Amino acid sequence: xxxxxxxxxxxxxxxxxxxxxxxxxxxxxxxxxxxxxxxxxxxxxxxxxxxxxxxxxxxxxxxxxxxxxxxxxxxxxxxxxxxxxxxxxxxxxxxxxxxxxxxxxxxxxxxxxxxxxxxxxxxxxxxxxxxxxxxxxxxxxxxxxxxxxxxxxxxxxxxxxxxxxxxxxxxxxxxxxxxxxxxxxxxxxxxxxxxxxxxxxxxxxxxxxxxxxxxxxxxxxxxxxxxxxxxxxxxxxxxxxxxxxxxxxxxxxxxxxxxxxxxxxxxxxxxxxxxxxxxxxxxxxxxxxxxxxxxxxxxxxxxxxxxxxxxxxxxxxxxxxxxxxxxxxxxxxxxxxxxxxxxxxxxxxxxxxxxxxxx
Length: 359
Fold this sequence. Notes:
There is one protein chain. By secondary structure, the protein is of the alpha+beta class. It has one domain. Helices cover 59% and strands 8% of the residues. The strands form 4 sheets. The protein has a 5-stranded antiparallel beta sheet, covered by helices on one side. It has a two-stranded antiparallel sheet with strand order 1-11. It comes from Chryseobacterium turcicum.
């Protein structure tokens, strides 16, 4: 099929865009090969400059999610802590939230500069303008920020594509921020009633945000949503257990705040499993020992003001919320890629009247 050459100011869209507006492709160096009726130079593989930013969803989701998570932890801390202790955690979490929001805005505005590092794929294999291969309306650009930029010759189709893609991507951003805000609140509320417990759990949760996103988001090439949420929930709980136990031993605090993996929960769950195994095999001694462990675990949890139960509830809730959010976001991303491809195909016959018969 014949392909059209591409003059400067042709419109393009990106699968990661959020701004709702197609951008125009610009030349990066002077050219004397013109499309006569428009006095615009033809584009080549090195012409990857854009008229403006697509407002990339990648930093919006990542840094916006971190901003919301930190704000959620601050809200949770405000609920369970009082006085100066609350102020310490809240101020620290809010500082992280503000910083993350600032980084998100900056990177959304500048991440599209990364296109200057790349060249267009699928150019004309024989025709060159000013020593560089000419691009055609089939050409595309793989942005280093994971987006795919496609050429849309028809401005009307370009706007349709920009509207659909941006709408889906903004839904992803809102789901990411909303789910992280709720998870942050749950983390803060279930971490315990001491500044140390909330502070340690909050810090570790924030620290595990990046690896959990790496596992859960298709932008990083993965769809392990359940694994992602488990990393976030289990990691902070497990590490906080050790820290909390050490602090308790030195009388700094008497509470292992909001942990799922502690001796009491271990006794309660492990005892129940042991009791069941003993009953199944007819081992009365094993069943009795399991029942004792389960009883001790439950008594310990009650003695700790139900901290362990709160930890279990928070753990389960955060896994459920994180998994649902990642699946929803990944579904939107797949729909976006499919729709963008279909609109690109619709535009294939919309080129200028200068075509390449052998590309």
